[in-house]
Amino acid sequence: MGHHHHHHDQHEHEHDHAGDLSVPERELEPGELNRRSLMRRAGLLGAAAVAAGATASPAAAATPHHPGREPRHGYQWLAGDHHIHTQYSSDAVYRVIDHVRHANAYGLDWMVITDHGGAAHARIGVEKVNPDIVQAREAYEDVLVFQGLEWNIPAAEHATVFVHPGRNEVAVLKEFENSYDGSVKNANDSTPANEALAVAGIAFLGEQVRRRRIPDALFFANHPARRGVDSPHEIRAWRDSDPSIAVGFEGAPGHQAAGIKAPLGPGSGRGFYSGSPSAASFPAYPVESYRTFGGFDWMTSTVGGLWDSLLAEGKPWWISANSDSHTVYGDTATRGPNSDFEANGRYNDPVYGQPTQVTAGDFWPGFYSRTNVGAEDFSYAAVMRGLRAGRVWVDHGHLIKGLNVRARVAGNRSDSGITLGDTLVVRKGTPVELVIEIDLASEPNWAQFVPVLAQVDVIQGDVTGPAANPDVFTTPSTKVAKSFEVTSGAKGSVRFVYGIGPVDRPIYLRVRGTDGKRSAVGLLGAGVDPAGPQMDVLGDADPWLDLWFYSNPLWVRPRG
């Protein structure tokens, strides 16, 4: 495919980025820009590729592993994972290439390496991991490999921070980590000064993009409800600090194998959500918030809950799903002998070991969780634009193969309408409909069964504007507006149309679906969510027997 192909002149120009299409033209030196132009004229680079900072004709390069590459409904739907740990994390084991090789085999198109922020990583790890990432980009051109880190958010939990590849990717990440990481700066306590440091960190990333030191950067808060320390006002402050950088949080955490029953599994909670409130927790959060529901975080899974309270403000805030892969359930690898993490910033390469890891809680990237992004092409820039735009749906266990959600004027079949993340603006009183098209699973997932979708829910809420109380985490008008049953034995694809009716106020809509194996009345009552995800049982929550997908929202706004 060639989006990271090194040409022969690379040997003459040791730091020549002319042939490295992950580096956009605005970052090239004049000589490099000339060489890139020459290469393009010589047919060594596709003109479209250089313009997009990506590969030439990416759709033509679709492989059986990467079915999302064929454009559908205007976009390539690229599956990815933004939360992955390697031997450069103090609690992980694998090489970068191990994760990339598995991600490629399990159908991922993009991924982010996010080793833990901290003293050793800030000092040497962030630099040392980069050659491994560059090498993996070259070895697996079918997978976009971003460099990022897992930020210890001052006063709060963790977050993925990642940047578009380029000559300053390491320098910016290193400066960010040394200046704003809660562990490095000893700023973990919930104080106003530490909360302000977190906001300043996000603003710093936005400034680096505006100054063109890096082409792009993004932030997603990780496992937001796990310890109860991400308060609603902090989440709002991150988002409002720079909405082009801070775009969302994990709707479902990684570590999904952690709920498998002992002795064949860890016997914990999915996501290792097994704790309880502490002195550092936001005191208003209910005790249920420390558990997952159908594998999803309480902030996302509660209809009318915290995520909905953010969406009701009419501001973008998106969800993702990923592996948080550190040590893989059922694997036999162990850390290389004579490792000295503190001295080297990494563990030695893993080796074969026994016994099999049945207390590990993770899956390989792409094996279970996917964040599916609608991208204009196969490129780093397009994936980041798709994430920022909210053209994203997530699923577990490959419950479905594809999802197309559109809002349009009712009955107007010539208009494809708007999709996830967008806003449909109509004249007040115009009837609107939501069209949901789902490609059903047709082949076994990695647990060797074909998932069966049983139910699809449309969740609707009013947009009421900025929250008067920044710590609010409910919104009263949001509820399941319509449920559709999927006909038993349905094959291929299914289509549902929800008639919203005449629109007289701004609203948002989102969609979720389930295999129907475990459901319960939602936390805010049957009138809000009659058949939502059930709270996961600590020590007995097989992730394969409780599968869900969630879409990000879209908005409808009347004018006049």
UniProtKB/TrEMBL annotation:
<feature type="domain" description="Polymerase/histidinol phosphatase N-terminal">
    <location>
        <begin position="80"/>
        <end position="155"/>
    </location>
</feature>
<dbReference type="InterPro" id="IPR004013">
    <property type="entry name" value="PHP_dom"/>
</dbReference>
<dbReference type="InterPro" id="IPR003141">
    <property type="entry name" value="Pol/His_phosphatase_N"/>
</dbReference>
<feature type="compositionally biased region" description="Basic and acidic residues">
    <location>
        <begin position="9"/>
        <end position="24"/>
    </location>
</feature>
<dbReference type="GO" id="GO:0035312">
    <property type="term" value="F:5'-3' DNA exonuclease activity"/>
</dbReference>
<feature type="region of interest" description="Disordered">
    <location>
        <begin position="1"/>
        <end position="24"/>
    </location>
</feature>
<dbReference type="InterPro" id="IPR016195">
    <property type="entry name" value="Pol/histidinol_Pase-like"/>
</dbReference>
<protein>
    <submittedName>
        <fullName>Histidinol-phosphatase</fullName>
    </submittedName>
</protein>
<dbReference type="InterPro" id="IPR052018">
    <property type="entry name" value="PHP_domain"/>
</dbReference>
<dbReference type="Pfam" id="PF02811">
    <property type="entry name" value="PHP"/>
</dbReference>
<dbReference type="InterPro" id="IPR006311">
    <property type="entry name" value="TAT_signal"/>
</dbReference>
<dbReference type="GO" id="GO:0004534">
    <property type="term" value="F:5'-3' RNA exonuclease activity"/>
</dbReference>
